[in-house]
Amino acid sequence: MSKYEIIDCIMDLNKTAKTEFLEQFSVDELDLYLEHLMEVDLEEVALCA
Other CB atoms closer than 10 Å to residue 22's CB: what's the count? Predict the structure, then answer.
C-alpha cells in the first residue's frame, strides 16, 4: 500500500487521527501502527462477542 492508503486505513480505525500528523511518519512506522490498530480492533470485537 502507498503511504496515503495506509493513512486512510488508519483514519478509518482511529477517527481522531489527522492526516497532517500521520504524514510525519515513514511508511514502515505507519504500517506498524496500522497493524496495531487492527489487532486492537479485533480484540475489541472478541470482547464484545
Answer: 19
N-terminal to C-terminal alpha carbon distance within the chain:
31
Three cell numbers at 45? 470485537
- Residue with the bigger pLDDT between 40 and 42: it is 40
The C-alpha atoms of residue 26 and residue 5 are separated, in whole angstroms, by 13
0.90 cut: is pTM over it? no
Instruction: Name the pLDDT band for 42 (thresholds 50, 70, 90).
Output: confident
Name the maximum alpha-carbon separation found in the chain.
36
DSSP-assigned letter for residue 15: T
